[in-house]
Structure formats: C-alpha cells, structure tokens
Amino acid sequence: MSQPNKPIFERIAIIGIGLIGSSLARAVRERGLADHIAIATRSSQTLEKAEKLGLGDSYTTDAVKAVADADLVVLCVPLGTIGAVGKAISGSLKNGAIVSDVGSSKASVIKDLDGVLPDGVHLVPAHPVAGTEFSGPEAGYASLFNGHWCVLTPTAKTDTDAVKKVRALWEACGMKVEEMDADHHDQVLAITSHLPQLIAYTIVGTATDMEDDSKREVMKYSAGGFRDFTRIAASDPVMWRDVCLNNKDAILDILGRFGEDLNNLQRAIRNDEGDLLETMFSRTREIRSGIIEMGQDKPDIKPED
Amino acid sequence: MSQPNKPIFERIAIIGIGLIGSSLARAVRERGLADHIAIATRSSQTLEKAEKLGLGDSYTTDAVKAVADADLVVLCVPLGTIGAVGKAISGSLKNGAIVSDVGSSKASVIKDLDGVLPDGVHLVPAHPVAGTEFSGPEAGYASLFNGHWCVLTPTAKTDTDAVKKVRALWEACGMKVEEMDADHHDQVLAITSHLPQLIAYTIVGTATDMEDDSKREVMKYSAGGFRDFTRIAASDPVMWRDVCLNNKDAILDILGRFGEDLNNLQRAIRNDEGDLLETMFSRTREIRSGIIEMGQDKPDIKPED
Predict the structure, then answer these.
(1) Is some CB atom of chain A closer than 8 A to the CB atom of B68?
(2) Residue A160's Cα: distance from chain center in Å?
(3) Residue of A148, A203, A238 lying closest to B258 (CB–CB)
C-alpha cells in the first residue's frame, strides 16, 4: 500500500461502479486522494455489492444526490449514457465543480456534454487506458491503473487548473498522463484498442457459426492461438457496443484499411506468392521492436528464462 | 525432471533443430526415450548452437547420414522443404523405419511424402500443437509439449504398430494424443491456429503502414490490446509462409468466412445498429464457456485473485 497522500479533492462522486469506477474508488481510498467518496449507480443490486465491498463513504441510486457538493464528478458509465447522465446532474453541480469521465472515445463525450453542463463547471474529458475482460464492482482493483497511460483531451475552453487537478488524480493512481486533441485520441485508440477488440469478437463469432461438431473441436484445440481471442472477446458487450457507436468514423476508417490488407493477404495466398507472404510476415517485427524499445512490453525472452 | 522411461527407440534422428526440434530433443533426452539422438540441420551455424547446447548424441549437416540406422526419423523442418528432405533421405532409411513430422498442415505432408518413401518404411504424420513466438535451437525447452494436444493423421495404409510407437513418444513428452483424418485436421487448425496468426500479422501490418508519427503513438499506447497481437506476429515468417502455401484451401475458406463476418460488423457500425452489435458481442461468450468447461483454459478470474 502507498503512503497516504494529501487529499486532492474534498468530495469525489463516482457515477457508475463497474470495473473502472470500482478500481478508481479503491485507488482513491487506498491513497487518500479524497475526504469523501460518493458512489452512485442506477442498479440497486450493483449498489448493494459496492456497499458490501466498502468502496465508498456514501451510496445512492440517484446520481443527482451523489454529485451535490462534489468538487469532482467522474462519469464511469457506458459512453451511450454519458449525455443523459450529464443532463440529469447538471442542475445539482456546484459552481467550480469538475466533471470528468473514463470513456474510450473522447470527441463524442465532448459533443454529448458540451452545452449541457452549466457555466462555472469544468469539463475535463479523460481516458485511463487500462482494463481487463472482467466487469462489475467485484472486478476492480486499486492497482489496475499502475504504469498505464491516461489521456486527457481538454478543449480550448477547458480551465487549466481543472486539468491540473485531474492530472494529479490519475498520476496519484499510478498513471502516466498525456494531453491530446480528442479527434487524435479517437484515431490512435481505434487502432491500438478498438480494432483488436472488434477483430477478437469477429473471429470468435466466425467460430460460433460453425456446426456443433466442428465447434467442439475448435474449443478442444483452442490453445493453438484461438483461445487468447476468446479471452479478449469476453469483454463487456454494452461497453463495446457504445464504443462502436461513439467512435464510428475512426473505427470504420481503420476497419476499411484492415479489410484491404486482409484482401491482399488472401490474394497472396491464392496466388501462391511465397516471397510476398514472407515479406508481409517479416515487416511486422519493426513495430514489435519499437514497442520493446519504448518500454511498453517486456523484451522477448523465452518462457523458461 | 521425470523418472527415466524405458527407451521407445534405439536411434531417433531429428531433422531440423528449431523451436520444435530442439524441444523434442530435450524431452527425449530428459525422459530417456531413445538410446541415441542424431541431430541434422542444413546450417552449420545452427548445428554448432545445437552441439553447444548438448541437444543430441551426434551432429551432422547431412540428413542422409543422420537417418542411417534410425528407427524413428522426425522431420522438424518448414513444411515447404518436407518433400525435398523426404526424397533426399529415402535411399538411406532402414527397412521398418518410421518417418514422422511436426508440421502444422497434414494433407500436404502426406501428398509430399507419399510415393517418395520406400516400401517397408512407415509414414506417421503428426502435429504436436504447441509452440511459442520464438525460433531457433535456443528457444526450445523440454516441457513445451506438456498438457497440449498432438494430432496424428495416419492414412488407410499406415502401419498400426508404427502409430502406437509415435503415440507413445508424444505421450511420454506429456502430450494428449488424438488421431484424425488429415483433411479434417487441416480444417480445424485453420480456424484455431492459422486464422488467429494471420489476423495478428495483418493487424500489425496495417499499423506498420501508418505514418511515422502515428506509428510511434500506436507503439506508445499499444497496451490497450494491440500489443498482444505484436507478440503473436513475432512468430517465424518462413514457417507461416509455408503453412499458408500448404494449407491453402482450408485457410482461404476460413478467411472468406471471417471476411464476410467483418463486413457484417462494418455494416452494423455504419448503420448504428446498437442492438445487433450488442448481440454480436454477447454470443461469443458461449465458446469461451465451452473452452473453460473442457479444461482448455483457466476459469475467468480477476487478476488479483
């Protein structure tokens, strides 16, 4: 456990208490980053779990109540409900409050909340790039964010002091924080996160459509590579539905490029172009080396080392 | 280390000493499965490494010499060279010798070796479904095969005693052994192993084509999912080139199905079909549950459990 920090906020309201929300609550509590953690979630069943886990200081199914007097509100709800939640709470936010979020697309969050939040309330869109394939309040843990990136996408009118405070929060949770333009964030994440996820869903879906006998054999011999995709494809369907709907343009662009590359591969196989295939399979090593040089993955060493 | 077994073979010749060949050599040595391990590889540099690692009892760059007097010959070379190696050694195989392999496609191996091996020599095509993304004699380790499946694809004319002996070898190496028709093997592996690998190569290739600035950011934020694909895409390009060329029909069939499913996904995103997307992302859980029930992966528990 880390040394207790000086609290950054008096009252944090966490709206939505799934994997990310509950991990944030745990990290804030463990590191003493707020005097009071108010937790709100629509489902009374989920709220009960959160209370049983002792994730906060107060609990309510009414987001409006949770945000009253909060100096920071973090929306940890699916992207599709951000606009509605923003509208619901807007009248109860105190002057000077910061509203942030944890959504995987950022331009849509700005669009959904712009004009909804009252003057004197500061919007600081954020995306802590961390997660697992598990969902719900039990799935969270305080060290989830350690060593990962958090991207902030302030707009021209975002208050710089508010940005500093949100940055301080995520840094205290162990994250490396970067700022960038929302559209740029959406393009980068479309390839590093959204495309891999959609590919995993698709490949497992392709197998799901097979006849029962074949399907049993796919499961049986899944350790050959397929199994890793099934793990990724176990992620929360609602979250990923909303990512698709809210980062539509960037995702369609990257799916288009990927589809072209896949067609190229198919053609090379159909035409028995061995040299081309070998080149295609060799050039991908450049990016792998770059990732290792940048310290984003462990060097490639064999399992028993 | 396991208890020494009674040797199954007097002399095993391992032709090709990469990841699989060197792992087999180590397992045979460690478990006392043969009195003599003869190692052959074309490259004198690789042979030197194998000798330095003490993987066998005799070493040669000439496969013809290695197979003389061997009662089992295991071809651990890329699929593209199996036919040529088979032809080269055919005149030196002793009567009653067994020839096996470790290739990822099986119909092509039967086609390449059928009619090439002399009468009285028994072909037992095999595929130990195990591996890592590493290559070369240093990458191998004796426990690589533990708990994984090995598929044997004997033909109607394969000697049953020879099949029993090859089964005993892989079982002694820790594998679960199944027999099936070669074409069926090729179809199952096309989805469980070949498609995931080709998808990983393609997605990393798509990123490789981006401008340098974007590429750096893809590396930086790769932990969001993309990174896992770069690890898979670090696998041996020559091996995978040969898999594509030798399991062409099954791979093209499954790439076609996957491509259709990908088009469906694109259309659903383009048309904002949220319900359809959620259904697509939920139905993949069935296969995941099946894999866990069949003991092919650990249950989904959160990382800190």
Answers:
(1) no
(2) 23
(3) A203
Q: How far apart are CA A67 and CA A58, in angstroms?
A: 11
- List CB contacts (< 8 A) between B240 and chain A: 277, 281
Please, which residues 115-154 of chain B have a Cβ atom closer than 8 Å to chain A? Answer: 129-130, 132-134, 138-139, 141, 143, 148-149, 151
What are the respective helix, strand and coil percentages of chain A, to the nearest 5?
Answer: 55, 15, 35
Q: Residue B1: its pLDDT value, please?
A: 45
Contact B214 A283 (CB under 8 A): no
The residues near B106 (Cβ < 8 Å, ≥ 6 apart) are B125, B127, B151, B153, B182, B185, B186
Q: Any idea which of A30-34, A294-298, B29-33, B125-129 has the lowest mean pLDDT? A: A294-298
- In chain A, which ranges are continuous DSSP H helix? 19-30, 44-52, 63-67, 82-90, 107-113, 160-172, 182-189, 195-208, 212-220, 226-232, 237-246, 248-270, 274-282, 285-293
Shortest distance, CA B212 to any CA of chain A (angstroms): 11
pLDDT tens, residue by residue, A127-168: 999 988 888 999 999 999 999 999 999 999 899 999 999 999
The Cα A83–Cα A174 span in angstroms is 29
3-class state of residue A91 by DSSP: coil
Burial (CB count <10 Å: 0-12, 13-18, 19+), residue B43? exposed
A238 shares contact with chain B (CB less than 8 Å): yes
Cβ atoms within 10 Å of B271's Cβ, excluding its own: 10
pLDDT digits 0-9 by tens, B194-229: 999 999 999 999 998 888 888 888 888 887 788 889
Measured between beta carbons, the chain B residues lying within 8 angstroms of A271 are none
Sheet holding B176-179, edge to edge: B126-128, B149-152, B176-179
pTM of the full predicted structure? 0.88
* Per-chain mean pLDDT for chain B: 93
List the one residue out of B116, B87, B113 whose CA is nearest residue B100: B113
Q: B126 - beta bridge partners? A: B152
Q: Do B141 and A263 touch (CB under 8 A)?
A: no
What is the C-alpha separation between B86 and B99, in angstroms, rounded?
9
pLDDT in tens, B294-304: 887 777 654 44
Mean pLDDT score of chain A: 93
Average pLDDT for B156-184: 96
- Give the ipTM: 0.89
Domains and CATH numbers, chain A: 9-180 (3.40.50.720), 184-293 (1.10.3660.10)
Contact criterion met (CB < 8 Å) for A193 and B225:
yes
Say how many C-beta atoms besides its own lie within 10 A of residue A213's C-beta. Answer: 9
Tell me, what DSSP letter sits at residue B104?
S
A16 CB-side CA count, 13 A: 22
H or E stretch covering B254: helix B248-270
Instruction: Quickly state the pLDDT bin for A214 (edges 50, 70, 90).
Output: confident
Token pair of A20, please? Answer: 């990310």
B109 and B158 Cβ atoms separated by less than 8 Å: no
Residue of A138 and A210 predicted with greater confidence: A138
Q: How far apart are CA A278 and CA B241, in angstroms?
A: 6
